[in-house]
Amino acid sequence: MSNNYLLKRAHLYQDEAQMGIEAEMQENTEKASLILKALERTTGAELATVPVNAISYTRFLITLNEFLQEEGQVFVKLEFIRDNSREYIRKMQA
């Protein structure tokens, strides 16, 4: 997998998390919860199939997955995904 593809994936995580945050802020908690559930499933599935040579991306997914396994509020989890995605993108573009 190319770095460009992995950056696009991280942007998707960031964008989806932002959509969930906006839904939560508009008191559409059902939509925010559905977005979070989709991100949780995607993170787990992608972690199971990520190539071994994508070390930074694997760490990024592990960080997300571990945090998402803990109990917590939807908004906090979505913020975590967005912020960690942004940080991964920033590091990879440096």
What does this 3D model show about the protein?
The structure is a single chain. With 94 residues, the protein is mainly alpha-helical. It is built from four helices and no strands. The model has no long low-confidence stretch (mean pLDDT 95).
- Write down the Rg: 13 Å
Distance between the termini: 19 Å
Structural class: mainly alpha
Strand content: under 5%
Order of helices and strands: HHHH
Given as residue ranges, the uncertain stretches (5+ residues, pLDDT < 50) are none
Keywords:
94 residues, mainly alpha, 4 helices, 84% helix
In short:
By secondary structure, the protein is an all-alpha fold. Helices cover 84% and strands 0% of the residues.
Map the helices and strands:
Layout: H1 3-25, H2 29-49, H3 55-69, H4 74-93
